[in-house]
Amino acid sequence: MAQRTWETIKISYCQRVGKEVSFEAQVVYPDSILPDQPPRILAHRCAYGTQCNLEGTPSCVWSGTNPAYDPFKA
Ligand code: SF4
Question: 3-class DSSP state for residue 67?
């Protein structure tokens, strides 16, 4: 059976929350029956995105509220 997991791929300082946050990718690894297939990335997120949205102000592209700001782009 294929396995899905969230893995940290980058850590950056976010000025909005004033601390380092993790940029994560949801990776699906193939079943051992299909060993030649590479892992696939299904989605990306900021590990702090849910807490950011609770503050009620636009934050960044990874919380889905401000497409003009991407702290992980630099
Ligand atoms: S969701 Fe965006 S603004 Fe909020 S902590 Fe993560 S990178 Fe920073």
Answer: coil
pTM of the model: 0.82
Nearest Cα neighbor of 71 from 18, 15, 9, 24 is 15
Confidence (pLDDT) at 56: 82
* Ligand 1 geometric centre to CA of 26 (Å): 17
Q: Which of 11, 45, 54, 62 to mutate to test the pocket of ligand 1 (most atoms within 8 A of CB)?
A: 62
pLDDT at 58: 85
CA nearest to 69, candidates 47, 56, 39, 57: 57
